Amino acid sequence: MPTNAIFGFASMLVKIITDHGIKPTVVVWDAGSSGRKEVYPEYKAQRTERPDLLREQWPHFEPLVDAFGYRNVRVDGYEADDVIATLVEKAKSENVPVMVVTGDRDAYQLVDGGYGS
C-alpha cells in the first residue's frame, strides 16, 4: 500500500505542532460543489482527477486527523475553501487569531494585516 501522501500529511501536521505548539485545529474537507462550475464552466477546468495512488490513501486522512486530536470538518454541499473562508471571517470578527495552512492560492484573499494573516 502506498503511504507517501499519508506520510507527507502527517509530517505537515507535526511541523505545525513543532513550529506553533498545540493549538485548537480543524481540518476542512470538501463535501459538495459550490455551484461555481455551473456558472463558470472554466472553474477548475485545468484540474485533473485525483491520482489512483492518492485516491487509495484518501480514506486514511480523516482517522489521522483524529489521531492528532484535531477536528475534521465538512459541511454538506460546500467546498472546503468556502468553509475555511467562513471560519476565518467568523474568527476575525471575534478577534481570534487564525492561521490557515493550505496549498490553495485562493486563500490569499483571506490574509489581512491583523488577524488571519
What is shown here, in short?
With about 120 residues, this protein is mainly alpha-helical.
Task: Please tell me about this protein's structure.
- The protein has 117 residues and is mainly alpha-helical.
- The protein has 5 helices and 2 strands; from the N terminus they run H-E-H-H-H-E-H.
- It has a two-stranded parallel sheet.
- The longest helix is centred in the first third of the chain and has 17 residues, at 4-20.
- The radius of gyration is 15 Å and the shape is globular.
The helix/strand series, from N terminus to C terminus, equals HEHHHEH
Largest sheet: 2 strands, parallel
Beta strands, count? 2
Rg computed from alpha carbons, rounded to a whole number of angstroms? 15 Å
Oligomer: single chain
Overall SS class = mainly alpha
Secondary-structure blueprint:
Layout: H1 4-20, E1 26-28, H2 36-39, H3 52-57, H4 61-67, E2 71-73, H5 80-93
Parallel strand pairs: 1-2
What labels would you give this structure?
two-stranded parallel ribbon, single chain, 117 residues, 5 helices
